[in-house]
Amino acid sequence: MPYTFHDYKTAGIDKQSLQRWSKDVGWEVLLNRAGTTFRKLSDADKKDITAAKAIDLMIAHPSLIKRPVLERGAQLIVGFKPEVYDKIRK
Length: 90
Hints:
Elements: H1 8-11, H2 15-25, H3 27-30, H4 36-40, H5 43-46, H6 51-60, E1 69-72, E2 75-78, H7 82-89
Antiparallel strand pairs: 1-2
């Protein structure tokens, strides 16, 4: 199946995509709180995160977006889980 690779860590990401993804899976799923980028944020940035604040943070710091994000038609898969990828390949 053909695909398009988009490196949002170097190319950035548009707000509309993040809003659409957040609506699909929730901003909590998209926001990578486990990485060093999140840990390096100020306490004020980490506090009281809302959908709008999370999207703004992910635009400013694309490394905060959990990877990979796979759009497959209407299906959106966030993060790598081998069992999920095995299932969709079939």
